[in-house]
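Need tokens for this chain, all 216 residues.
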Amino acid sequence: MEGEKLERAHVPLYAIDGPRGAYNANSVYKVPIHVRRSTFRLPTNPRTPVIMIGPGTGVAPFRGFVQERVALAERTIAKHPESGISDWGTMWLFYGCRGANEDFLYKEEWPKYSEVLGDKFQMHVAISREGPRKPDGSKIYVQDLLWEQREKIRDALADKKGYVYVCGDAKNMSKAVEAVLMRILGEANGGSAAVEGQKELNMLKEKSRYLTDVWS
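Here are the structure tokens for all 216 residues:
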């Protein structure tokens, strides 16, 4: 009996019957599956700058973006070895993790992509538990890295019609990123984040140049 109780204690229990037994009909389980159409698509023209913000697991779709550009770059360079990808827009990736050897996803892959894309791929990483701190001692996150690159980001969005993609936490990160972008765009138009910045950000959303996939 004691052995039996011990064995049962290690068996996980899952509420697969669903709410009020909705998924169980005469011991036949029917579990709903929802497929959501993704709005994440790279611009068809590689000359268009791309700004990707995805800390943690939010980086997953951007790995695919970069891989897609690498494959296209290899074909382009093979076909046009002299000009190559010199006229392409830059891909910026703003990524964040806790530790360089703890949860830095796809760490070994990013340098390989840089070998193909060169300066057309720029990755900025915020390592919250190990990296440098702000003057007040607080941690540095992806939105802080975005602000550090504000002049380039402003040029990519205002002058070169770039795209912004945000993936990850909806509770804090995405809101902080929006606030920084509004500040960048507001100053670019000689105004404030609350007025001109908000207006420019809304314009990006309306033109599907600001796309998000966030969750709480």
